[in-house]
Amino acid sequence: MVKMIPVIKSTMLSALVLCCVPVTAAALTGGSVLDNPASSITRQVERNAERLVERAADRRIESRLEEKAGIPEEGLQNLPEVLTINTAEGEKAFNDVLLEDGFRAVERQWLVAGTAEEIKRLDHPGITVLEQKALDGLGMIIARFRVRADMDSLEALRIALPELADRLDRNHTYSPQAGTSSPSGNPLASSGESLCEAPVRIGMIDTSVATDHADFRDARVVEQRFLSIDDAAGELSSVTAHGTAVAGQLVGRRGESGQARLPAATLFNASVFYRRTEDLSGATLGHLLEGLNWLAAQQLSVINISLTGPNNRLLAAAIKNLQKQGTLLVAAVGNDGPTAPPLYPAAYPEVVGVTATSRTGELYRWANRGDQVMFAAHGVEVEVSHPGGGTVTDSGTSLAAPVVAAALACQVNGSDDEMALEALIDQAQDLGEPGRDGLFGFGFLPY
Question: Parallel, antiparallel, or unpaired: how do β-strands 104-113 and 140-147 relate?
Fold first, then answer.
């Protein structure tokens, strides 16, 4: 029988995610740190000594990163304001356009959530309903619609659809959060040890996974694609690089021992990313919601979301519904740099936001910062599986998020989500300012 996960208590959630005053793990959990302060101090001294020994290697890594020009996601800035996206069969699917706020969306497309009766109100001049779907796993009914050019703003839709204005938003596009890959150099060797042998069920929403890669020869991966376009023939072109790298951090063989972090897990992957250019991919909110809906039906303990984008009413509602069902959600905080605003879904209070560091805890220079950061994990110069075979070296918060997702999946097995989070807080190595901070969250998890 698959274990159903209870809902995070609201008091615990606010303490973990929204607090701005630094709090130690021991203060929240009443755990062993307070019970045995002497041994805690000894362990901290040992950890600091280990980090000092490896600090020189970290400086070499940082030097290589500084030689790379620009932010890892700078390729998005080079996209044209209007990018035509075709299906795999070559038919035009939609235009991926730049918005005034700097984010991107499907041109003149919006989504709305409501009852079937409420959605009928979209029968309005200047509005064309493209599809309507019941997302039972998320407890939502959504409609995707196109608007006339002069109605393509929230202000105009508030006038046309006042009763639905607080439940509609653009069909935004979201991006994966990893840097530019390069052939494997000499990243710090990973022990490749497994985190647990439990047969956990864990989900991710990403690109497709190249399951024929040798790293997945013993892995159990169940994948469903969400790339169809109802108002165009065929599907969008799928991509595999990012999802293969992320899945490898969960269930792929890795490191010197060749063990997976979750060797007995079943990984459920919702493939939602389409090809934008040769090097860049994107996911529409519509497909993202469909993928989350499918994952919601799989009775999962944890879902990893290594993508970012803007705040969106429908995405916020979906995340909240998943959390109410008892699913732990882990997301990359993003690679837009230290001064960038919070990105979503990591910035939602229901989500565990993860930043990236080197193996010894040096913060990734392009990682987003802020109250949304809950944990830090290894995501700098990581050796990852490549769809073409072999490995490449990559960096980004996308690669740190699955480390935390795997650890949570192990902790919640036989426990509950609140205790699982408390356990990780207790295990985190406090870096930066004492207690929780906007750089490392509660601290670095050395898995």
Answer: antiparallel
